[in-house]
Write a structure and sequence with these properties.
The chain has five helices and three strands, in the order αααβαββα. The chain is mainly α. Strands 1-2-3 form a three-stranded mixed β-sheet. β1, α4 and β2 form a beta-alpha-beta unit.
């Protein structure tokens, strides 16, 4: 079962990476600090989050937990806004490479172990690594969708992802 999970997640990772790159390629340069509302994330952070999230697969497969309030915990997995579209796409490729490497080296028993996300010492998410990796894709799709709303508000092209968009017809 575990090796089937590796094949499944590796394929899904490639599909989601292609969609990420389509969306990230439309992020306007010079607008990293823009946000649609004072309570919203800045565009640069959100774009970096979408680019970096695939690397979280490596975080889940190579650690037991992450404490979000510790600035040093998972520092290689925290999003950093990029200064150009080209840098953002390179950042996304690096995240893919981390995830691919972790998936190719995961042991069968690792899937059953649990992984915890903590905030201020309190566990806010605890599940098997299998479930955490699966949920990473859902979480990624959420933030990528959020990013497409930012693109629309900035009058940038919104590419088709799972189906057509107003800017890109498919079929």
């Amino acid at each position: 079962m575990a090796m089937d999970a590796v094949s499944f997640f590796a394929g899904q990772l490639q599909r989601e990476h292609a969609l990420n790159k389509k969306v990230l390629a439309q992020v306007p340069e010079g607008k990293n600090t823009w946000k649609p509302h004072e309570k919203s994330m800045e565009l640069g952070y959100l774009a970096a989050l979408v680019a970096q999230m695939p690397a979280w697969i490596a975080l889940v497969l190579t650690t037991d937990e992450m404490e979000l309030t510790d600035p040093h915990a998972g520092k290689d997995f925290r999003p950093v806004a990029q200064d150009s579209r080209e840098a953002l796409l390179v950042y996304a490729d690096a995240a893919l490479a981390k995830a691919d490497s972790a998936l190719s080296h995961v042991s069968e028993g690792a899937w059953e172990g649990s992984w915890n996300l903590k905030i201020g010492g309190r566990v806010v998410s605890s599940a098997s690594r299998l479930q955490q990796v699966a949920e990473n894709f859902t979480h990624l799709a959420h933030h990528r969708g959020q990013l497409t709303v930012y693109l629309r508000l900035l009058d940038a092209t919104v590419p088709a992802t799972y189906g057509p968009s107003a800017d890109e017809k498919v079929g």
